[in-house]
Design a protein that fits this description.
Order of helices and strands: EHEHEHEHEHHH
Shape: elongated
Strand content: 5-15%
Distance between the termini: 36 Å
């Protein structure tokens, strides 16, 4: 089994110390980390690179974190976005979640490990969505052979039975075993 590609996290904040702290925290966890000092730079990075998770500050000059979230979800809805702020309000938190944020963190960070766990969770959700999409595309691309070779000689009796069962108004076990199942 091949090792999955590293999770690519983009940290967006206009405070260099915050960028450094997140980089150190996440690289210990084997994330691939890039940083941007503005929302505009983040949008450019999003166009040029594969990014799995974005962690963005709300308060930034130019494009703020909530506007960045909105634009990311239009351009690349599969990217998970975690919003962080030092001046959190319930209204901003609600808006962020409605716009599609994965999570909303408030600074200063008391539990550093909890912040890293949130990124791990976002990465896990992103990876599961990617795998689901890949499997759906594989099945859609070849519906007759995606799971089994339905035209092989050995499969003819099975496919005949499947065809009969599909027309029946009963569950599969009662048709195959000639009696009602207990399930």
């Amino acid at each position: 089994m091949t090792k999955p590609a590293p999770v690519r996290v983009l940290i967006v904040d206009d405070e260099p110390v915050i960028l450094k702290v997140w980089t150190v925290m996440l690289r210990r966890d084997e994330f691939e980390v890039a940083t941007c000092g503005s929302g505009q730079d983040a949008l450019q990075a999003l166009q040029l690179h594969k990014i799995d998770v974005i962690v963005t500050d709300v308060m930034m000059p130019g494009i703020d974190g909530l506007e960045l979230l909105k634009r990311v979800k239009v351009a690349r809805p599969e990217v998970e976005v975690i919003v962080m702020t030092g001046k959190g309000s319930i209204q901003d938190a609600v808006r962020a979640m409605r716009e599609g944020a994965f999570d909303y963190l408030t600074k200063p960070f008391v539990e550093i490990e909890e912040c890293v766990n949130r990124v791990r969770q976002a990465a896990r959700v992103k990876r599961l969505r990617d795998e689901n999409l890949a499997l759906r595309q594989q099945i859609d691309a070849s519906p007759n052979s995606a799971l089994i070779d339905s035209v092989a000689a050995a499969m003819k009796p099975v496919m005949s039975l499947v065809s009969q069962v599909a027309r029946a108004a009963s569950n599969v076990l009662s048709k195959v075993f000639g009696r009602a199942s207990s399930a």
